[in-house]
Design brief:
The chain is α/β, with parallel strands linked by helices. The chain is built from ten helices and twelve strands. It starts with a strand and ends with a helix.
Length: 300
């Protein structure tokens, strides 16, 4: 049985990935601040956790752009330097586990051309994106030390009622169910929203390739390749909830990317993977989950 360490196993992606990996036969070890199982800033505990593992899925991070802006030093230390240290520890390990790192569409910044493919210019607008790009570079450089690495770039992952309340789609869905106004930070802002179940399926495909010995994978987008404006997403939420909620536009933040659609071709080619839940359907699913959750307090 392959033993995999998942850092950030209680985050949005991690808490959906871990049970899937366990179901298909992997032994999973979690490492997360949320349950005191581990802090990636603690190199000693991280080294102990890595030893004996066949692979590492690195999800732990200061996980939001706004948090990075508020605490840039913490963001850099966590997302950039601690990630680099993790890769160094993997290189030192007797087993030399493969390492899959979870990056972000934020590494591109405001791209001049859509859709964006994985080889296009990287020009992040914020500390979060710069730290993720540094992590990516460290992952590719670790190959020279014998560590088999993979980089996946995620985009606007959603799909859980237990996500942070002020994340855009959970906020839209919760407020639509409650009949509260929806605040939209820029009606025409355009994003490539990815349902968490699709994200997990894509990561699982990469893990399977790494466990089979596949090496030197390029960076890979895990996203639908379909743009949805924030106004469209808000309307999907209100319509799905049959809600009386008003939709109000607010000013966007200076450090946010305004438009992004990714090219999913590489994932289709290399992983035989594509997203199957598009935003209109995914938002409707999340609305139903919020209806159940807000009525009973139990996740759907």
């Amino acid at each position: 049985m392959k033993k995999i360490l998942v850092t950030g196993h209680l985050g949005l992606v991690g808490c959906h990935l871990v049970p899937k990996l366990a179901l298909i036969g992997y032994q999973v070890v979690g490492f997360d601040l949320a349950d005191n199982s581990g802090d990636i800033l603690n190199s000693h505990r991280l080294e102990q956790a890595i030893n004996g593992c066949d692979g590492v899925v690195h999800l732990a991070a200061v996980s939001r752009v706004i948090w990075g802006q508020k605490e840039p030093e913490k963001c850099w230390n966590t997302n950039a330097l601690a990630s680099e240290k993790l890769l160094q520890l993997a290189a030192k390990s007797s087993v030399k586990p493969w390492v899959l790192v979870s990056s972000s569409r934020e590494v591109y910044g405001e791209s001049k051309q859509l859709p964006v493919n994985e080889d296009m210019e990287k020009n992040p607008l914020n500390i979060y994106g710069r730290a993720k790009l540094y992590m990516e570079q460290a992952a590719f450089e670790a190959r020279a030390a014998g560590v088999n690495t993979a980089v996946v770039r995620l985009a606007n992952v959603y799909g859980c009622v237990n996500d942070h309340e002020d994340r855009v789609l959970p906020a839209f869905c919760r407020n639509a169910v409650l009949g509260n106004p929806l605040r939209v930070d820029g009606f025409e802002h355009l994003f490539d929203f990815t349902h968490v179940s699709d994200t997990v399926n894509g990561i699982t495909r990469v893990i399977e390739l790494l466990c089979a010995g596949e090496r030197n994978l390029p960076a890979i987008h895990l996203l639908p390749g379909e743009g949805t404006t924030l106004k469209q997403a808000a309307n999907f939420a209100v319509t799905s909830a049959n809600s009386i909620s008003l939709i109000n536009e607010a000013a966007s933040r200076s450090y946010d990317v305004c438009k992004f659609i990714g090219d999913p071709t590489r994932a289709k080619t290399l992983l035989d993977w594509q997203a199957i839940i598009l935003p209109k359907e995914g938002i409707a699913m999340l609305i139903e989950d919020f209806k159940a959750h807000l009525t009973t307090g139990v996740c759907a």
